[in-house]
């Protein structure tokens, strides 16, 4: 019998996210949208004669007459082509932003029940006893504990604050390299140049490079300070595109695999639609053979709404909406972290996220004699802190804040560090509705002042 370790972050979410009146800033999806919301933000369509503007098609009316058979086993042809198109865009929103278009067809894509199913299918198909994989850490627990449950030897590739939480390629040696880009919980992407080094390393050794890209393409920061930069949008976009990491599929190496979903960047977790893409047809064939024993296909209804969300009329405004929300909310969270970077006995620190929806914030206290005023820079030490700082018990802290304030966060040590690493860290999902984030931070502000400062 396969023994799987408890999936700590999912069990934590399941236990506490339905708390009555909860302000959930543990959620990692961009603020969820309805089908009506999608229709409301869709770009209008110009008629073929150019004389009239038409609304984007209603996905529900098209699905109303669809016979509910199993549908296309691999996923509809249209949706699989849209996934290829999505991964071909470095910024995900325009054909003009294509730098390294993928010369693949839809036959290299499998549609799955979310990225979590694609990941599991991949591991079950490719890994077994005696295989050695290296996985970036911290990350989503599935990415290292499922390979471990299948008998693979797992090495954790620790992302260090003193290296900007970017992996060091010099530490690599494995059969499969497992990446998560952008990273959950850190919100830090692996830069394009580092990804190229990883692919070059793997190519020289015939290694598989698997990248969970569930937060792609939600990039909202980087070397350009979007709040202070007064240059034209085209100039800022050019600099961002030069550094923003593309999909791992874009580097021209066959033994690469990307998984993603409609859940995080697209705010449609209720669809349960994800995918796996590989340049290697043997990997795709093997995964399809394995899936014959499990889910067979995805729901035609989910597939249809996903096609609508990834259509040209909807994808661009949807990503613009969610990116703008992320950009706005990370500034709200930045103000809060800086406010408490050195206030009374409390020390908050982080590496400000530039992608995805999550931030990993460290909460420490200092002895009474070490109290400081409201100053300091929360980002100077990358979250390392001084020797006199003591991390809070993050599990007890999260439970007490939930009890007293109805604010939900995820404890870092329990859900990402096996109870040993990342003590004092909490994961905050900040790309929810701005009023929810602001109310939650106001209550957290009261808690820190009342009980820790």
TrEMBL record:
Enumerate the InterPro entries for this protein.
Answer: Aminotransferase_I/II_large, NHTrfase_class1_PyrdxlP-BS, PyrdxlP-dep_Trfase, PyrdxlP-dep_Trfase_major, PyrdxlP-dep_Trfase_small
Is Membrane tagged as a keyword? Answer: no
GO terms for molecular function, please?
pyridoxal phosphate binding; transaminase activity
- Identify the residues that the record assigns to the Aminotransferase class I/classII large domain, covering every copy: 66-439
What domain of life does the UniProt record list for this protein's source? Eukaryota
| Keywords associated with the record | Aminotransferase, Pyridoxal phosphate, Transferase
The question of whether Transferase is a record keyword is answered with yes
Regions annotated as coiled coil: none
A Pfam family it matches? Aminotran_1_2
Instruction: Describe the family membership recorded for this protein in Swiss-Prot or TrEMBL.
Output: Belongs to the class-I pyridoxal-phosphate-dependent aminotransferase family.
Name the UniProt record assigns to this protein? Aminotransferase class i and ii
């Amino acid at each position: 019998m396969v023994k799987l370790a408890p999936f700590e972050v999912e069990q934590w979410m399941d236990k506490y996210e339905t708390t009555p009146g909860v302000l959930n800033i543990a959620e990692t999806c961009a603020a969820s949208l309805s089908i009506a919301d999608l229709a409301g933000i869709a770009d209008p369509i110009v008629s073929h004669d150019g004389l009239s503007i038409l609304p984007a098609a209603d996905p529900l009316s098209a699905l109303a007459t669809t016979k509910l058979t199993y549908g296309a086993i691999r996923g509809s042809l249209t949706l699989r082509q849209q996934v290829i198109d999505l991964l071909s865009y470095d910024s995900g929103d325009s054909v003009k932003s294509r730098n390294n278009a993928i010369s693949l067809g839809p036959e290299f894509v499998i549609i799955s029940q979310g990225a979590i199913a694609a990941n599991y299918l991949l591991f079950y198909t490719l890994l077994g006893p005696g295989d050695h994989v290296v996985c970036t850490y911290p990350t989503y627990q599935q990415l290292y504990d499922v390979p471990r449950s299948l008998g693979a030897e797992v090495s954790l590739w620790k992302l260090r604050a003193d290296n900007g939480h970017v992996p060091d390629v010099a530490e690599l040696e494995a059969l499969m390299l497992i990446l998560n880009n952008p990273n959950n919980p850190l919100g830090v992407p692996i830069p394009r140049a580092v990804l190229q080094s990883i692919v070059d390393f793997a190519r020289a050794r015939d290694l598989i490079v698997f990248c969970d890209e569930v937060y792609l393409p939600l990039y909202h920061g980087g070397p350009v300070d979007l709040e202070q930069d007064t240059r034209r949008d085209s100039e800022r976009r050019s600099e961002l595109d030069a550094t923003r990491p593309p999909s791992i599929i874009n580097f021209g190496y066959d033994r690469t695999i990307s998984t993603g979903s409609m859940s995080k960047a697209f705010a449609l977790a209720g669809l349960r639609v994800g995918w796996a893409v590989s340049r290697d047809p043997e990997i795709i064939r093997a995964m399809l053979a394995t899936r014959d024993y499990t889910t067979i296909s995805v729901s035609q209804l989910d597939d249809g709404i996903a096609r609508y969300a990834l259509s040209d009329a909807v994808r661009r405004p949807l990503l613009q909406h969610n990116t703008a929300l992320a950009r706005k909310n990370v500034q709200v969270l930045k103000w809060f972290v800086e406010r408490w970077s050195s206030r009374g006995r409390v020390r908050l620190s982080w590496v400000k996220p530039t992608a995805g929806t999550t931030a990993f914030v460290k909460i420490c206290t200092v002895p009474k004699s070490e109290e400081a005023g409201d100053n300091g820079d929360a980002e100077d030490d990358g979250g390392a802190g001084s020797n006199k700082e003591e991390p809070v018990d993050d599990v007890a802290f999260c439970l007490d804040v939930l009890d007293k304030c109805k604010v939900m966060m995820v404890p870092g040590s329990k859900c990402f560090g096996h109870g040993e690493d990342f003590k004092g860290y909490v994961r905050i999902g900040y790309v929810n509705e701005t009023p929810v984030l602001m109310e939650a931070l106001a209550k957290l502000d009261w808690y820190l002042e009342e009980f820790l400062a």
